[in-house]
Automatic annotation (TrEMBL):
The keyword Aminoacyl-tRNA synthetase does not apply. This is Dibenzothiophene monooxygenase. Residues 227-372 form the Acyl-CoA dehydrogenase C-terminal domain. SUPFAM superfamilies: Acyl-CoA dehydrogenase C-terminal domain-like (SSF47203), Acyl-CoA dehydrogenase NM domain-like (SSF56645). Belongs to the DszC flavin monooxygenase family.
């Protein structure tokens, strides 16, 4: 059986060089994403019967931590593909699974155009799938279309004229699809998280995946999405810690009152490194624990071997575990990326080092959803036995 973790490690060695420069110059990682495509890493979660590895989520998080340490923008650009695979496994019809799984085994990548600006609440979808003279037409504008410029298929969330939610698997080159490289966030600069415009995109019925049956049904895909986000944050923190340790031996001078000749023996620098290592590795550990619970829940739901009540308990426990992991991974990655400057002092702020990219990346990526609501969800479950909301955020 193929070792996907080994593949990710080998890819990371090729992706890491130039990551700081790509960030500084906002150079999109087309070459790096092509390496991932050629390695066929996108088959990792496909069923074995469909030519994939069906690897556990404990391996998925290792892959994303590894890639994120090398370049978190590449890791985030790949994330929507893994989320789409899970949606296909859970929701798509057998014929749709056959089609898209076959495409993925031929090195095709998928991405997602979900979020929109505007509306009264976050997550509101106005992109519409309309039936006109026997043809389905897709119209709307998406923002945060992470990774779409690198993908072959774009999973678009829309609503029908009747208000039913759907996913539409749109080939990127379809007439009426316009992808803009207009993401200007301070961090995660090269994720290609720009605008997608959909103007009268003609949609064959086989592209349409009904979603409305799952809107109010608990499932494991939201936990998977959050789990991968946790992994990306942990990878950012680990990369920052590595850079801090490396810089101690290169550019840090001890203060006179430390009584040591080398910064590597300064007790407060050592203390800081120890503290940051403990925090970020605690994040890695809790992510692994959460991944084990997601594995249990996903296997139960995909296999159908557990009754609905038992599966619902596993899904709830997985979502809570991932929420706890999100709390720790967010706090830990931000702590490490901020405290780098306590180790290196003013020298670490040099533009050429671009160490601030770690904090910018962590701060930008951790804004995907409010951490306060994670605390609330965990507390509400433990105190009141109320499960977390059914949403892509849990």
């Amino acid at each position: 059986m193929r070792d996907y973790i080994k593949s990710a490690t080998e890819l990371a060695e090729q992706i890491a060089p130039g990551a700081a420069e790509r960030d500084m110059n906002r150079q999109l990682p087309f070459e790096q994403m092509e390496l991932i495509r050629q390695a066929n890493l996108g088959t990792a979660r496909l069923p074995v019967t469909s030519g994939g590895g069906d690897i556990p989520f404990t391996d998925v998080v290792k892959i994303f931590i590894t890639l994120s340490r090398a370049d978190p923008c590449v890791a985030q650009a790949l994330f929507p593909h893994f989320a789409t695979v899970e949606h296909l496994r859970l929701i798509a019809s057998p014929s749709q699974q056959d089609k898209y799984f076959s495409e993925i085994t031929r090195q095709k990548l998928t991405s997602g155009a979900i979020a929109e600006r505007g509306g009264k609440i976050r997550g509101e979808i106005t992109t519409q799938l309309s039936l006109r003279e026997g043809r389905y037409l897709l119209n709307g504008t998406k923002f945060y279309s992470t990774g779409c410029l690198f993908a072959d298929y774009i999973k678009v969330q829309a609503v029908t004229e009747q208000g039913d939610a759907v996913y539409v698997m749109v080939p990127k080159q379809s007439p009426g699809v316009t992808l803009l490289d207009d993401w200007d966030g301070m961090g995660q600069r090269t994720t290609a998280s720009g605008t997608t415009r959909l103007e009268n995109v003609e949609v064959p019925s086989e592209w349409i995946i009904p979603l409305h049956h799952w809107v109010n049904k608990r499932n494991y895909v939201g936990a998977v999405a959050q789990l991968i986000h946790c992994s990306i944050d942990a990878g950012i923190g680990l990369a920052a810690l590595e850079d801090a340790i490396r810089w101690i031996g290169k550019g840090v001078r001890p203060v006179k009152e430390s009584g040591v000749e080398l910064a590597a023996y300064d007790p407060y620098i050592l203390r800081t490194i120890g503290e940051l290592s403990a925090h970020i590795n605690a994040a890695v550990a809790i992510i692994d624990l959460a991944a084990r619970k997601v594995d249990l829940a996903s296997r139960a739901q995909l296999s159908g071997n557990s009754n609905e009540s038992q599966t619902d308990i596993l899904l709830t426990e997985a979502s809570i575990a991932v929420a706890e992991a999100k709390i720790i991974s967010t706090r830990s990655s931000l702590l490490v990326c901020e405290r780098v400057y306590d180790i290196g002092g003013a020298s670490t702020t040099q533009k050429g080092l671009n160490l601030d990219r770690h904090w910018r990346n962590a701060r930008t990526h951790t804004t995907h959803d409010s951490l306060d609501y994670k605390y609330k969800a965990v507390g509400n479950y433990l105190v009141n036995d109320i499960p977390p909301p059914i949403s892509f955020l849990y």
